[in-house]
Amino acid sequence: MDELDPVIHASARLRICATLAALDAGDRISFPRLQELLAMTAGNLSTHLRKLEDAGYLAVDKTFQGRSPVTYLSLSTAGRRAFEDYTAQLRSLLGGTP
């Protein structure tokens, strides 16, 4: 059996990926809203988002709302696929069907 993806397997990143995977493809969430949903500090969330971004799993869209910067986040196509693979491997590991 292949090992579970270590980028996703960390608890905080797994929670991030699960939350983002719940969004419809093409939808995104603002950084503050994700922070609120996950009850994480901005610094901790940023650190884990960077790991996901470096792996190519995260799409980051930085824009402005008026004069205020806003960051929107979503799983990239590769990120969705990696999360689907991760959950299939986990099901298989737990004795379920892949």
From TrEMBL:
This is Winged helix-turn-helix transcriptional regulator. Residues 14-94 form the Winged helix DNA-binding domain. InterPro entries: WH-like_DNA-bd_sf, WH_DNA-bd_dom, WH_DNA-bd_sf. It comes from Protaetiibacter intestinalis.
